[in-house]
Amino acid sequence: MTTSPQRVDGRTARSERTRSAIVDAHQQLIREGDLRPTAERIAKQAGVSLRALWSHFADLEALFAASGERVLQEAAEGHKPVSTKLPLAERIDAYTRQRARMLEQLAPNSRASALKEPFSETLQHYRRAHLNRAREEIATLFAAEIDGDEELLNSLTAVTMSATWSTWREVMKMSVAASRAALSRTFTALLTTA
């Protein structure tokens, strides 16, 4: 007996919906403050059985990988490259506004990842990928001012990472606007004295 293509396509679509629902549930729990959701809570939030979760993801590392891909994809969709032709002050303003939006959007995932990252090669990979993307963007956008200065590039990259944003927002209790202003002031100070 052969299976019709339509039936296979229906099963594939259903499988993709289930997989997507599991990733959505994982992300939703993190956004709601459950920074270490268990497989049981994720399955319940997704409205699927625990068995269905494990049939789509071999382990939590595989789920972290799918969630990490989703987070990076969402961040990339909201990203608009800043023109390198703008004057320095306008480039700094445009870049720091966009970066602040992204860091605020990623904050729940960053907090959740920080708890598990020391034990997860997948999360370590995504952190390095995120850092490398940020570093490349800064190197391109401010190439004239950086002029090959690795120390300056390292300093600019470090200040745009979630750890700095988290310090401003959570430890120092600064508003988004104040945190963005601090980021902008730091960039201005570093780039105008270079």
Description:
By secondary structure, the chain is mostly helical. The chain folds into 2 domains: 1-57, Arc Repressor Mutant, subunit A; 59-192. It is built from 10 helices and no strands. The protein has helices at 5-31, 39-46, 50-56, 60-77, 88-116, 121-141, 143-146, 150-159, 162-171, 176-192. The longest helix has 29 residues, at 88-116. The relative contact order is 0.09.
Keywords:
single chain; 194 residues; mainly alpha; Arc Repressor Mutant, subunit A; 10 helices
Order of helices and strands: HHHHHHHHHH
Most strands sheet: none
From the alpha carbons, calculate the radius of gyration and give it in angstroms: 20 Å
**End-to-end C-alpha gap:** 72 Å
Q: Low-confidence stretches at least 5 residues in length (pLDDT < 50)?
A: none
Into which percentage range does the β-strand content fall? under 5%
Total individual domains: 2
Number of H- or I-type helical stretches: 10
Number of strands: 0
Tell me roughly what share of residues is in helical segments. over 70%
Q: Based on Cα principal axes, name the global outline.
A: elongated
Class derived from helix and strand content: mainly alpha
What's the mean pLDDT score?
Answer: 88
